[in-house]
Design brief:
121 residues; 79% helix; mainly alpha
């Protein structure tokens, strides 16, 4: 079971890797979101990359530290579920956002596993 949890946490970290990469490569905002890196929206998207780096970091921490898993399941869960909720409420638009929604939908299974394991101990 521990191997499955470890792998699940790393998968959840990986889901957040591309959005986190925007912090280090702002030009990714165009490819990932169709937004130019300059201007107000671009700046917010780059800052969002820092927040995704925090989500990625807490998921990696949880892979190695069972004591971090409850808090990490909340942080990662909020990230994944909130985006899917906002995406659905916005009419599930096509384009880059659909790709993000698909990645987050795939993340629901490992998220359910790690959340159940973290809160059932």
């Amino acid at each position: 079971m521990e191997r499955a949890l470890f792998a699940s946490w790393l998968l959840l970290a990986a889901v957040h890797a591309m959005p986190a990469a925007v912090l280090f490569a702002p030009r990714l905002t165009e490819r990932l979101y169709g937004v130019a890196p300059g201007g107000a929206v671009g700046i917010l998207i780059v800052h969002r990359g820092a927040l995704f780096l925090a989500v990625l970091a807490v998921a990696v921490l949880a892979a190695f530290s069972p004591d971090a898993r409850r808090a990490a399941s909340l942080v990662v869960g909020i990230s994944v579920v909130a985006f899917l909720t906002v995406y659905a409420a916005s009419g599930m638009p096509s384009g880059q956002l659909r790709t993000i929604a698909l990645a987050d939908a795939v993340a629901l299974a490992p998220l359910a596993l790690v959340t159940w394991a973290a809160w059932s101990r």
